Amino acid sequence: MNRLWTKPPVKKTLSSGGAFLLIVVASFSLITCSVVAQEGTSVQSPMPVKTLGQVDYVEINMPAVGSEAKQLIIFVHGTPGPYSAFSSYLNDPIMKERFHMISVTRPGWRNAEDEKQPSLAVQSEALEPFLHMDKSGKGALLMAHSYGGPVIARTAMDYPDLIAGLIFVATTGDPQLSGSRWYNRFAVVLPRFILGDSLKGANAEILPLKAQLEQMLPRWESLTMPALIVQGDKDHLVSPGNAVFMQRMLVNSDVKTMFREGQGHFVLWEEEPLIRDTLIEKFQSRE
User: Fold this and answer.
1) Are 179 and 208 contacting, i.e. CB atoms less than 8 angstroms apart?
2) Count of C-beta atoms within a 10 Å radius of residue 274
3) Is 27 exposed, middle or buried (0-12, 13-18, 19+ CB in 10 A)?
4) CA-CA distance, 31 to 57, in Å (whole number)?
5) Which of 146, 43, 148 is CA-nearest to residue 89?
6) DSSP characters for the chain?
7) pLDDT 10s digits, 196-221
8) pLDDT for 77-103, tens place per residue?
9) d(Cα 161, Cα 131) in Å, to the nearest integer?
10) What pTM value is reported for the model?
């Protein structure tokens, strides 16, 4: 991708306005397309894609009649992204042994033409039916990456009795660190054919996020379920300060925070074995 932008074929003919536009698109694309590339990987083991309301999802270890149900963990991707963002966890044999797993494609991302749903309240409501799918009696775990963090935090605030724990991996949370940047504001006026559906959709979710996070501030202290926070100290997409913020706000939770030295926004995939082992230890060690 870097070679694409270091030697643009139209370099000699661009006007100053065209050059500025190219820089804007390049900046926004490099930031967001990298996430798409990671989250767009396919699940290795073929499994049917199901639909519930506005959500597409895949499911592993669905409880069967007469067998002991495993604890449910629900994976929530960032923006943009599909259910396959968590393919490495869905295909992990240790995760399969331990959990009933559901990975969702959030409302607004099932199809390119879908209207985006930037409301965290709408996203929370869409996840609520999945929380009832835990048949283990332990309550569901929610695990999220990037923009998915505010989604699961809001869901826990709305349905605390159904949730046994939260796992935040490189997620946003602090309204002072999660506001839109200059390229987000500029991208509003760029046509869809320049940005593409994924980038335009991501922008639609990011722009109203700060105000919603501000409204959530008084509700963090209501969360009492344990939480795991994982953050790379070299993350250039989500400020590591977000992890500090969530640790500070979860005053009534048993919180474990892991700062991974040298890791960036893709810590979700690059540290999968460590994250897997840590979440099992934290949420199932008492069994």
Assistant:
1) no
2) 13
3) middle
4) 26
5) 43
6) -HHHHHS-TTGGG--HHHHHHHHHHHHHHHHHHHHHHHHTPPPSS----EEETTEEEEEES---TTSPPPEEEEEE--SS--GGGGHHHHT-HHHHHHEEEEEEE-TT-SSTTSPP---HHHHHHHHHHHHTT--SSS-EEEEEETTHHHHHHHHHHH-GGGEEEEEEES----TTTSS--HHHHHHTTS-HHHHHHHHHHHHHHHTTHHHHHHHHGGGGGG--S-EEEEEETT-SSS-THHHHHHHHH-TTS-EEEEEETT--TTHHHHTHHHHHHHHHHHHHTT-
7) 455 555 777 888 899 999 999 999 99
8) 998 889 999 999 999 999 999 999 999
9) 10
10) 0.82
Q: Are 246 and 217 a contacting pair, CB within 8 Å?
A: no
> CATH code at 218?
3.40.50.1820
Sheet with 55-60: strands ordered across: 50-52, 55-60, 99-105, 71-76, 140-145, 163-169, 227-232, 255-260
Burial pattern 196-213, b for ≥16 Cβ within 10 A else e, equals bbbbbbbbbbbbebbebb
Give me the residues of the chain with pLDDT under 70, please.
1-46, 179-201, 286-287
- Residue 57 vs residues 4, 54, 60, 183, 189: alpha-carbon distances, Å: 34, 10, 10, 31, 32
- 84 neighbors 154 (Cβ within 8 angstroms): no
| Tally of structural domains, the chain | 1
- Which domain range does residue 121 map to? 2-284
Distance separating alpha carbons of residues 62 and 102, to the nearest angstrom: 9
